[in-house]
């Protein structure tokens, strides 16, 4: 007979919630015709006064095997924060790795490089870049009425100092 005792405990809860589950299994073959249950034979051989002897022992009876398994756990903030920090660090490394692959190893790396980086050659390049971003956000936020009013205006576009 095998007794299985399984514990599955959450140590954040009270001890009364941690109760084992029991199950039982029959180890022998119930359909065996010769001898049911647990039994076996073994022999002890020895020599005494020049003669060989053998003692045959037949063992039978009940055999109990007890298996105890289980797991228990308790919440701890330290492993949680370590796992979250590691995950965020891996996400940061993933972007760096993708940039290295795209900008240095692919055939179309020049196209990716042009799309990723913007070359500024003006003295006040930072101001010009901020002005471009402000214009783009104004255009995106503009209403349909403002767009229709702009169509009817005859204002000349300002191309800057180039005079084009």
Mind explaining what this structure looks like?
The structure is a single chain. With 164 residues, the chain is an alpha+beta fold. It folds into two domains: 2-73, no CATH class; 76-134. It is 38% helix and 27% strand. The chain contains four helices and five strands. It has helices spanning 77-104, 109-116, 125-141, 144-152, and strands spanning 2-10, 21-25, 38-48, 51-61, 65-73. The strands form two sheets. The protein has a three-stranded mixed sheet with strand order 2-1-5, with no helix packed on it. A two-stranded antiparallel sheet has the order 3-4. The radius of gyration is 41 Å and the shape is elongated. The model has no long low-confidence stretch (mean pLDDT 82).
- Major sheet description: 3 strands, mixed
The helix count comes to 4
The helix fraction, in percent, is 25-40%
Given as residue ranges, the uncertain stretches (5+ residues, pLDDT < 50) are none
Family: Belongs to the P2X receptor family.
Subcellular location: Endomembrane system
Main location: membrane
Transmembrane segments: 84-106
Task: Furnish the topology, listing elements before pairings.
Layout: E1 2-10, E2 21-25, E3 38-48, E4 51-61, E5 65-73, H1 77-104, H2 109-116, H3 125-141, H4 144-152
Parallel strand pairs: 1-5
Antiparallel strand pairs: 1-2, 3-4
Give a quick summary of the entry.
With 164 residues, this protein is α+β, with helices and mostly antiparallel strands. 38% of the residues lie in helices and 27% in strands. It has two domains: 2-73, no CATH class; 76-134.
């Amino acid at each position: 007979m095998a007794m299985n005792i399984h514990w599955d405990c959450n140590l954040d809860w009270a001890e009364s919630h941690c109760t084992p589950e029991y199950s039982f299994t029959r180890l022998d073959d119930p359909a065996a015709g010769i001898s049911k249950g647990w039994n076996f034979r073994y022999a002890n051989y020895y020599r005494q006064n020049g003669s060989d002897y053998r003692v045959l022992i037949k063992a039978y009876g009940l055999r109990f095997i007890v298996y105890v398994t289980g797991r228990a756990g308790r919440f701890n903030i330290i492993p949680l924060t370590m796992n979250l920090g590691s995950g965020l660090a891996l996400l940061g490394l993933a972007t760096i790795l993708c940039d290295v692959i795209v900008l240095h190893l692919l055939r179309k790396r020049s196209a990716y490089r042009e799309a990723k980086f913007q070359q500024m050659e003006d003295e006040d390049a930072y101001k010009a870049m901020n002005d471009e971003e402000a214009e783009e956000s104004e255009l995106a936020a503009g209403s349909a009425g403002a767009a229709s009013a702009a169509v009817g205006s005859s204002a000349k576009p300002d191309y800057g100092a180039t005079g084009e």
